Amino acid sequence: MSAMTRRGFVKGAALAPLAFTPLTMEGQSTAPGNRFDIVVAGAGHNSLIAAAYLAKAGYRCLVLEGYSIIGGGVKTEELTLPGFKHDTCSTAHNAIQGNPLLRNDELRLRDYGLEYLKPDPIMHMPFADGSYITQWADLERTAAEFAKFSKKDAEAYRRMYHESEAARDLLGGDMFAPPGFVKPLSERLAADPMGKFWQRRLAMSAWEVIRENFEDDHCRAFLMGTPWSMQPPQYPMTGRSAYSAIRTSPRQIPKGGSGMLTQALARFIEAHNGVILVKKSVVRLIIEGGKCAGVECADGSSYRAEKAVLSTMHIKHLVEMAPRELWPQDFLYGVDTWEGEVSEVVTHYAIKEPPKYPIKGGTISPVESAILASPERLLRFAYDDACGVSNIEEPPISIFCSTVADPTRAPAGMHTLKVLGFHPYNLKEGPQHWDVIKNQVSDAQMNYLRRFAPNLTDDKILARFVMSPLDLERKNPSFWHGSIHGGASDPSQSGAMRPMAGWAQYRMPIPGLYQTGDTTYPGGSVTGAPGRNAAMVMLKDLGTSIEEVTRKGT
Ligand SMILES: Cc1cc2nc3c(=O)[nH]c(=O)nc-3n(C[C@H](O)[C@H](O)[C@H](O)COP(=O)(O)OP(=O)(O)OC[C@H]3O[C@@H](n4cnc5c(N)ncnc54)[C@H](O)[C@@H]3O)c2cc1C
Questions:
Q1: Helix 375-387 and helix 217-225: axis angle, to 10°?
Q2: For the chain, how many helices (H) and strands (E)?
Q3: What radius of gyration, in Å, describes the C-alpha atoms of the chain?
Q4: Distance of alpha carbon 53 from alpha carbon 100, whole angstroms
Q5: How far apart are CA 303 and CA 125, in angstroms?
Q6: Could you give phi then psi for residue 190, rounded to 5 degrees?
Q7: pLDDT means per 10 residues in the chain (554 residues)?
């Protein structure tokens, strides 16, 4: 079948050049007689990871993606001009570095084109008074940046770094196993000498932890303004995220673009007898004898699965794809009460030079930077969100210029730039109003950035591409209501409550149907955890284990 040979990939064959090659094959039905063990609905990084382990185990996988390119939130596209490769959504691949997939190199994705770059400086934040904090992989160098404002805060930065490192296994140890497969956090905390300290810290809000430990507003803003996105920092139970910006490990980016991760996974799946089809929007689950036996697509094609169907479609959409009476009441209650989360306005630019922030003795052009006028400005977001207001006064923004570390992403001497700001999906005028105001909000974000990087004048900008919260959902239905992690990560939708109590082990109420992706444990971001965890459960149900599968050579 052409789908299997179209990329002509053979492991070990020449892979160069590893330039980004989108999977753009038009949707087509598999030839009659073709059989698949597993049919996967949606090709995000999580479902591709699950499919890759299943394919390695010898199960024949078919992956169906609704969009024209695989990857979901982990893809790279030429959104502005030819040769400018933009990370449509994610850029930084942090948490996935701790996933055994990469940590133990279980699938040897490097052989399939995946290579990570480690930008240093890690982060830069300029302030309106001309001062700044630059974060480096060297702990002492960063502490010295904090000490410019407060010696006490520099000491707090060091102390919290060591606290966090010491608790790495205690707090992060269960992310890469399905709920119930390892000792629950409550039991681990009870048995650990630092357990009581962490019990309190985890229950606090991130803002409380930062306010208690840091006295200077520059230092506080740095800790709050660098990649914050899961929950407003004043919400209870967000205490752990006060530590997320305290690091010495670079925020890694794949060479060639974020999409190189999903491209490598696709190559792996194809090299293990799998098939990936794009422009295949799944609209219905085929149910036979009470079991899920396959899926039907919007173009009328249908695909049968001999062993199982794995979905990464949003749970709000999943329940619409089978008769309502097949879902138990507690499951439906969990779906009906599912809450969205913070969304973003994202602007991609093709530019002639990177942002140049003035520093002592010159300028700095980091891969990643962020601007937050004050801690209070970020606290304000939850209120604006509740009011349905897109507040463009001194808007908190994150900025990525990946080409600084990876010139392969743009024509020689040119750069890509991504500017992101947090905004509500539900405007008081309704989400459709985003089509009216998105360019105005994008302009405000760029104008604010220019106050700190004045070199970004109009003549340096070749083209731009703006995405509103509504566009995010249009481009990827799994970003339901603009939710960049599938939905809120509040206590009611976290841990063994994701997606809802009783259904956190990736097995869905309809036999033969499994769910992965960011609506499942442990949630969103590029972690690959829901994907590998789902594979663990599926392999167990199929009578083997992930350990057995990964022990086998490739
Ligand atoms: C602007 C933005 C920036 C971000 N930046 C970062 C970052 O720097 N670092 C980070 O860690 N995280 C970041 N994130 C979050 C991260 O991108 C997501 O949490 C992550 O990609 C989710 O992966 P997933 O595999 O669970 O699902 P997704 O990536 O959402 O994949 C789901 C896939 O399923 C497909 N699909 C859905 N429904 C159907 C259907 N009915 N039929 C067929 N296909 C279907 C979709 O098209 C999509 O390809 C960002 C998100 C956004 C929006």
A1: 50
A2: 18, 20
A3: 23
A4: 12
A5: 50
A6: -65, -30
A7: 32 35 44 81 98 98 98 98 98 96 97 98 98 98 98 98 94 89 92 96 96 98 81 93 95 98 98 98 97 98 98 98 97 98 96 98 98 96 95 97 98 98 97 98 98 98 98 97 96 95 97 98 97 98 97 76
Q: Residue 469 is encoded by which pair of tokens?
A: 């919260």
Task: From residue 127, give the alpha-carbon distance in Å to each of 124, 141, 211.
Answer: 10, 19, 19
486 secondary structure, DSSP code:
S
Counting ligand 1 atoms within 8 A of each CB, the residue from 89, 231, 265, 423 with the most, and so the one to mutate, is 89
Q: What was the pLDDT predicted at 128?
A: 98
- Please report the pLDDT score of residue 365 as a whole number: 98
- Which residue has the least CA distance to atom 13 on ligand 1? 90
Is 122 near ligand 1, meaning CB less than 6 Å away? no
pLDDT tens, position by position, 38-57? 999 999 999 999 999 999 99
Distance 135 CA to ligand 1 centre (A): 28
- CATH of the structural domain 34-75+94-115+256-338+485-551, one choice from 3.30.420.10, 3.40.50.1100, 3.40.50.300, 3.50.50.60: 3.50.50.60
CB 408 within 8 A of CB 397: no
Placement of tokens 């979901």 in the chain: 72
**Amino acid identity, position 195:** G
pLDDT for the residue numbered 422: 94
Cα 477 to ligand 1 centre (Å): 9
Residues 338-348 pLDDT 10s: 999 989 999 99
The alpha carbon of 73 and the centre of ligand 1 are apart by a number of angstroms equal to 3
Residue of the CA atom closest to atom 4 of ligand 1 = 90
Q: How many CB atoms lie within 10 A of CB 262?
A: 29
Phi and psi at 345, nearest 5°, equal -105, 125
Pocket test for ligand 1, best of 312, 321, 346, 472 (most atoms within 8 A of CB): 312
What are the residue ranges spanned by the domains of the chain? 34-75+94-115+256-338+485-551, 144-243
Nearest to 37 by CA among 49, 48, 51: 51
Strand 275-277 with 291-297, pairing: unpaired
- Contact between residue 394 and residue 448 where contact means Cβ atoms under 8 Å apart: yes
Residue carrying the six token digits 């594979």: 535
Sheet strands (E) in 18-169: 36-41, 61-64, 76-77, 86-87, 116-117, 123-126, 132-135
Confidence at residue 13, expressed as pLDDT on a 0 to 100 scale: 32
Q: Whose CA is nearest to atom 31 of ligand 1?
A: 44
Residue in the structure block whose two tokens are 């003549």: 459
